[in-house]
Amino acid sequence: MCPFVGGSRGRGTRAGSAGQNGGMSRALLIVDVQNDFTEGGALGVAGGTEVARGIARLLARHPHRYRLVVASRDWHDPDGDNGGHFATDSPPDFVTSWPVHCVAGTPGAEYHPELPTAAIDVHVRKGQGIPAYSAYEGTADDGRDLSRVFDDAGIRRIDVVGIATDHCVRASALDAVRDGREVRVLSDLVAGVDAAASERALAELRAAGAVIAGSEE
Question: For the chain, is the Cβ count within 10 Å smaller at the N or the C terminus?
């Protein structure tokens, strides 16, 4: 099935997207809005639930804004330490090692229940046995990497939202810039672990060429 034609959002082929976006089609990249990264999860981030709700509002208000909606998830192996990503023999340092989280097939790895999963065209899984922060390190269900997914859909412009600003959002948005896309990070639809680190991440993204904007801009 071609992921950018039809879909469950009632947008038909979404052929109007290119014209509305200055001749270039736009995608929404939702990064890791999962139960373990929202309040009450193994690595819960304050504001994560509101990010899920905000994304739902965005897609409800602007059903024709995006030709393609892609969502990534951590999907770690249940056995082993996933390349040192899980702290199994010592306390986590919360830099390169972390508590066990987002294990494949567990409730913590599922999307937050308020994220409108029917709106997602392409699902990307990452971190299967290895550390992975950027959505570009994952693959879609059909095996394509994210660059190929965007190329196949004719995507040049990407809005990035999700969790966490200072980790996976940062890494994903930087890789999207390196991939030659025009990138906006929607600052009202991200949540970070650390406020200062999140501000540094946004500054780094701006310096790399990304635009930091609100979801209604």
Answer: N
Q: What b/e sequence results for 90-114 when a residue is b if at least 16 CB atoms lie within 10 Å of its CB, and e otherwise?
A: eebeeeebbebbbbeebebbebbee
What pTM, to 2 d.p., does this model score? 0.85
Strands of the sheet containing 182-191, edge to edge, are 139-140, 122-126, 68-74, 25-31, 155-163, 182-191, 211-213
How many of the other CB atoms lie within 10 Å of CB of 77?
Answer: 16
Contact partners, residue 168, CB within 8 Å, separation at least 6: 31, 32, 72, 74, 133, 134, 135, 162
Q: pLDDT of 96-147, one tens digit each?
A: 656 667 788 899 899 999 999 999 999 999 977 667 889 999 999 999 999 9
Active site (catalytic) residues: 32, 126, 168
Sorted by where each starts, the structural domains of the chain and their CATH numbers stand as 26-154+178-194 (3.40.50.850)
Strands 122-126 and 139-140: antiparallel
